[in-house]
From TrEMBL:
Keywords, ordered alphabetically: Metal-binding, Zinc, Zinc-finger
GO function term, MF aspect, one: RNA binding
Boundaries of every U1-C C2H2-type zinc finger domain copy: 14-43
Alphabetized InterPro entries for the sequence: U1-CZ_Znf_C2H2, WBP4
Listed Gene3D superfamilies: Classic Zinc Finger
Pfam families: zf-U1 (PF06220)
UniProt keyword annotation of Metal-binding present: yes
Native source organism of the sequence: Nyssa sinensis
GO cellular component, one term: precatalytic spliceosome
GO biological process: mRNA splicing, via spliceosome
Protein name, entry field: U1-C C2H2-type zinc finger domain-containing protein
Amino acid sequence: MSAVLGQSGYTWRDFCKIFISNNPASIRNHELGQRHKDNVANRLTSMRQVKAAKKKEQKEATHVLEQIEAKRKEGPIFVGEEEVFHQVHQIITI
Ligand SMILES: [Zn+2]
């Protein structure tokens, strides 16, 4: 979350994209600040959104896969479908 730059006396705050003085008082002061709290909240929100999007994608892929599997049981699949099958399978197994 935070990298310490040994000789500069500053520490990089990744959530806030700024350097602050590398001492406990400054770090504490920064982490208690509204800007930091907002940035942490924003980061968590975007992480959740990415996770939700990924989940949705997998769910849709699973659905397509189920449809293909169902079709497969009906008879031989076409070459184009087999290609889609492999692509979907890759998404699911990532
Ligand atoms: Zn911060």
